[in-house]
Records
---
Amino acid sequence: MKYLLALLVLSLFMGCGTSTSSENGEEEILDPYADPPGYSGDPFAGFGPVATIRFPAQGEAVIEVEEVSAANGAWTVQVAACGSLDAALTLRDTITAQTGEQVFVDHIGSYYKVRVGSFATSSDSDGLRVQLRSGGYPDAWSVQRDVMLP
């Protein structure tokens, strides 16, 4: 009985494959990365560009990773690299209230880097960097954000 069941399962798998027969009887090799046969639509039609992706992190908290583009600039001012998400989010809220600038929390390696503003060039970020240094963040420095999405 065991052999009969094994033979039945094996025969089912033999029917599956990576090729199919076309209408004229010729065998076609299927590309596993291509659209299904007969599909001609755009699966992303009607959707705009990605602006924010939310990744779950440590419990219920969520870090928002925003797309870096020429429109918002890749240069920012980093004020801290925190070891915990809670500390980074608290600092983010404090700096947002103090400056009114957009504050990013980038999770890179084992650190949550708190970064302020978005500028086209490093020299464009100089004014904010000086303001943050004089406002209690002496280690603030300009850095290029190169957030890679998983």
---
Amino acid sequence: MTDFLIKGGLIMTMEPDALSGRIIPNGAVAITGNEIEAVGTTEEVEQKISAPRQVVQADGKIIMPGFVCIHTHMPYVLGHNMPVDFSQLKSFWDMLQKMGWEWLEDITTPEGIYAATRYAAMKMLKSGTTTVCEIVEGPNALGKTPSPLEASAMAVDEIGIRAQIGFEVTERIPGVSILEKLSPEMAEKGLEENFNFLSRFPPKNGGRIEGRLAIHEAYTNSFNTLKKARELADRFKCGIQIHVAEIPRAFLVEKFGKSAPQVLEECGVLGSDTIAVHCIDLSDEDFEIFRRNNVNVAHTPMTNSLGGNGVANVPHMLEIGLNVGLGHDCFFTLDISEYFRYMYLIHKAHNANPMLIPPFQALDIAIRNGAKAMGLLNEIGSLKEGKKADLIVIDPDSPTPVMPSSLISFLCSTWQGRQVEHVFVDGRPVVFGGRLTTGNEDEIKAECLKEAKNLWKRNGIEI
């Protein structure tokens, strides 16, 4: 029996992509279990299916696949707007060591991870993100109960978002400058955390949660640790997520005599199952290394702008055939429409070329390409019979008609996450009528606020 029939809406299937995918007026999507049973006009779908358990009227609304964010750090929301001395942050290097490590990661607790992840997952679902690729950081939370990845998975499972999750493998010692000393023993703890999690949540396990090995970056690891990480990823066939070329290449060249892509290729880290995050300071040789290894790139333009890192050359990446998806680091509002629109615009301004990243390509980056990067394109990223029922229903607030010929432009130029009305993940309505169905929003917010206060107090901030 059909569980849900969502009918009467303007459907953007994105199958096989945004430009050539069918756009269906008065369309319908039928859901049975966790899969899409049928997609087409309302008349077509109603003829195919049995009487649905629940009908969702979507007249005047948009039905489309959920957005896919391929780089998040959900516990980072505890640091939003923290009143620290920003005069100390004169460079990205300062921001990484102080804001990222000293003020956040090194004082993160399992309780903070759980509370922040519940809040972040809730906010992302409510604004249209249905899938994330998450890196959990918190070296001093290792060895505690629950472990960092257990705390993250508990929150993700409860709220209902789809996620691949890993703990950051790094030789960095909390409280010690990486210029002074690194510790392979710290990396071993991270590898063990990933191993334990992957043993419970291996790829293709049939659920919403999978493990994906996470590495901080080449700069904070030795060749030996990087090779061990690849061996573990290959053992579980889980893929890797790693920050690459976020800091100036001179740091890597000084340490190794090579760029980050050169080091990672030599260690075997790069491959078609690798998501390389940021990828800003790259040479022509680095681009060629990515191309021949079929590396996926997570583009994070807003956080790169915050750190003054520069603008990744995404137009060139796309030109040479790299698969580029959208990430956001969880530094800002968690509304995917803001990150999506910024990505759509920044390359035009940076290159003084309005033809770069056309609307249909922007949508592919934010949905289809992300699903491909995570190895999930056969399951999500478009509305197609047999795929997982991950979709959103938008009630458009537009001063102009939203119709097949204007739909893609509307999403790039006008849509905001607050217009999302319903969200289905794995066939389950996790947001309905704009409200989370999987938990108490006020309680989730209150618990996150409590953990944020605890973290701020550990930074000496009076509240």
